[in-house]
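Notes from hallway chat w/ T.B., transcribed later so I don't forget. T.B. wanted the structure written out for a chain they're using in a teaching module, and asked if we could keep both sequence and structure tokens in one place. Agreed to drop them here.
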Amino acid sequence: MPATIPTIYSTLFLTILLFYGLISFLRGSIRDRTTDALFAVENLTDDHLLKQVRDHFQQRAYKVVEIDPERDVANLSGQVKPSLFLAIFLTILAAVGLICLGVVLGILIPELENLWLWLTLLSPIAGVFYWRGTPRERKVSLQLLPETRLKVRAHKDEIEELQRSLNLEKIDY
């Protein structure tokens, strides 16, 4: 049974919405996710804590850029490689989205029946967009605060990894 015109248009509308979601996901993959976190650090001296934090970030290829002893702030910088898995995943998602868009347009406009095949060739653009758009340099700022607290300003993933590896207790501020 042939599809009715309202069904085709509603399918096209939903496909365009899904494609818009895909584009938003791609843009979100390169967005800066720098955030602040405050950790309660008990049973550790300031020197021992700083050594653990320094060792953690050195293992993750960060280097000290600047130290401000007056404010007890250390700024670090490190190079981060984009994820090959995420680049491939985004390319596959783009291919699926473009195939869906091409099939719906092919049904709507019969002269474009093989459009999905040609649109699939555009999917690597998503992986390249992610690969080139990912910030290569990440910065970390560490500050010792009174009452055995550590303030960290870094990428969300770096904060989670620091918390996990040093078993720190995150507190709200």
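Follow-up for T.B.: The first helix runs from residue 5 to 29. Might be a good example for the class.
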